[in-house]
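User: I'm writing a short report section on ligand binding and want a predicted complex to refer to. Could you take this sequence and zinc ion and write out the structure as tokens? A short remark afterwards would be nice.
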Amino acid sequence: MQKKHLLPFFLTIIVAAVSAGSVVEYFSPEWGFFGHRRINRMAVFTLDQDMMPFFRANLEYLTDHAVDPDKRRYATKHEAVRHYVDIDHWGTYPYPNVPRDWAEALLWKAEVQEIKSSGDTLVWTVDTIVRVNRNGPEEEIFNGNVPTATLPTKKLPQVSVYATDSVHLSSSAGDKFSLALGDYRTFWYQYMIGQYYEDDWLLECRVQATLNWPVSGDCSRFRYVDHFSEYGILPYHLLQMKGRLTNAFIDKDPAKILRLCAEFGHYIGDAHVPLHTTENYNGQMTDQVGIHGFWESRIVELFADDNYDYFVGKAEYIEDPKAYFWEVVMKSNSLVDSVLMTEKRLSVQYPVDQQFCYEDRADITIRTQCREYAAAWSAAMDGMVEERFRASILGIGSVWYTCWVDAGQPNLDLLLGEGYKAPELDSLERAFRSEKIKGRDHGS
Ligand SMILES: [Zn+2]
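Assistant: Sure. The structure tokens for the complex follow:
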């Protein structure tokens, strides 16, 4: 199988336009621009009368901007990791060892370097996070009461940490020590999370010492290295988006509400795609390169118009957003084996010369999976793509609705008619058209 161009559809068109006459391989990212737009658009129709007029009035905006997060991957290296989580990199389903809390996930895999005046470096890493006494008295020592300046949200996630929960670390010199998980996590929220977008996470020795950390006499500074984010932060980012959108509703800021709704929709859509939850995101580990676009772009573009049922029901209030985001990701991940195995089986059984076809689009000839072959795979997956597509639509409507309810149900009719300006659009569009993706291609 020829290696595919990992280029978004628009870019593919551009490339093709300057090399007219040549055949290009078809590949578009994630649900594809088509899928993301359609999902956001249909989500509007899950809303009730309190929300519908405002969202209906901005239907085109919510549709068009469903793909902004993909475009932003060309503008900043921090964007790509928000679109996926390679959760199988960290263990096996259902991944009980992977912290569901953002700060805890970061501290779990962080490398903590004590840099000494001599230039020597002592490296500390976490061996285990031990949670005990889960059935004992609920002695919460951390309840989200941390300085708001360190987080972009007004509402902080409520998390349960018990006094008996602990973090065990060891150093490159063979030393070991442990500290209370609640203390360490509070410390991360206070000093480290705010540095998330810096290239270097630096801390003074005296600050590190407030943790009862075994700081050396000749300590110069501490440096933290993040080894978690590169494998994707999707479910954690969803919770951040929940906080931001709720705050936008509280602020009754129509531009912010629309921008965040459009983008939140994108990430919710991504979370429903099985191949966004695995390290083998494009079949590159199983000789199935191209399967990512086949699943979420080709199949959807062929069959979503005529065959999919868009009656998904009404948006519902989500009691526990964090649990819901993780449920979505876990469900997606549970489907990964089925996605890979059905395609593998079919690619062996199906006549090779009938798997790929050439299609003319405008002046371009595109090599892509044949319609009949795509239909055969879709049937082999027993409607999975449509089910995830429908679940995305309902999920998006439900998270919009939940944020609005949590914001106190502001009267959106008062925001009707307020024009929207997208200050970021020009630079995003420019970056998207002219640059390479920063970080992993295709967002996983
Ligand atoms: Zn994406």
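A remark for your report: The chain has 16 helices and nine strands. Residues 30, 69-70, 83, 266, 270, 443 surround zinc ion (CB under 6 Å).
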